Amino acid sequence: MPTMIGKVTQERYDELVAESKSLVETERDTHFKLGDNSLEIEPLQLQGGARPAAGVDVQTVEETLARFADDVGVSTSSVMSYRSTAAHWPPKQRVKGVSLDIHRILSGRPDRFELIRRPPFNEHYGTHRWTQDAAKREMGWQVQNPQSVQEKVTAIHGLATDDRVAAQVASDLLQRPAVAENVPARARIEAIGGLAHDEQVAAEAARRLLHRPDVAFKAMGDDRARQSVNHAQVERGRQAREEYERTSELAPAIRHFERTAEFLDLVGACHAFVATTNRVVPGLRGRILSDDEQSVLRENIARVRGALEWIEHAAETGDVDVDEALARLLRGE
Fold first, then answer.
1. What whole-number distance in Å separates Cα of residue 64 and Cα of residue 201?
2. What pTM, to 2 d.p., does this model score?
3. I need a surface site. Which of 23, 132, 249, 269 has the fewest CB within 10 A?
4. Of the candidates 198, 220, 199, 197, which has an alpha carbon nearest to the alpha carbon of residue 210?
C-alpha cells in the first residue's frame, strides 16, 4: 500500500512540493524585483539627506511609493517592505531557495550575509534549512511554533497581555498541584502578597492559614508578626468592651460603680477571651493534637493562667507588681 500524505501518495506529494517550490522561488524573485524597482524610484537616504530647493513642490517618499503601489496593483505596505528588504540585501548577497520573508527577518543582523549561508539543522527534516521560526530564533523574536520552555513561556506571555486573561491563566495553572509545587517559594509569597492588597481578602486568607497549627507556630516566631497579633488582641478587647457596654444586661448596673478605663478593659478582655473560647474549642471535637501542638497550647494556657492570677491579685490588693518569673512567662520567654 503506497504511503499517503494527506489525500495524495508520497510520489504525488513530492511532485506538488517541487512545483510549489518553483512557484515560491518565482514569487521571491518577483518580490525582490519590486523592491529593486521601488528603490530605483525612491532610493534610501541617510537621515538629514538632500533637501529640495526652495519653492519646489515635491512628493514625499510615502506618496511616491503609494502611487507606485496603486499603479502596480499591490499594497503600499508590501512595496515598503520589499523596498526595505531589497536595500538590505544587494542582488549578489541574496540566497536562492531562501524566501524573501527570511531575508526580511534577518535584515537587522550585521553578519546577515554570512549567517544566511549557514542554515541551522532542522530535526523535523533531518537537514540544514531555513524556516521562518529558525530565522526568528536567530533574531530573538517570538516564534510561531514554540519548542523550548522559554519560547513557550514567551508565547503564553504574549497571549496574556490582558490582565483578565492573565488572571484566569494563573488561576487555572495553579490548580495543578505539580505546577504549584514547582513555583519557587519566594514567587509564591510575592504572588500571595499581590493578591491580598484588599484587606478583606488578606484577613480571610490570614484567618484560614492561622487555623493550621504548624503555620501559626512558625508565624509567631516572627517578632513583628507576634506584636501585630498582640496589638490586634488588645484592639479586639477594646471593641469587646464597647460591645459589652452596649449589649450586656449587667452594663447598666456596672455603670453605677465608680470605675476606671483599666477596669473596663479587663472586663472586655475577659469577655472576648470567653467568647473566643466558646467559638474555637468545639472545633477540636474528635481531634487529637500532636505533641508539638499540645506543647504550644500548654505554654499558652500557662500564660493565660498566670495572667488571670495576676488580675485577681491586683484586683484584691491594688498591687500590680510581678516577679521576674511571671514577667518572663507573660512575655512568652
1. 61
2. 0.49
3. 249
4. 220
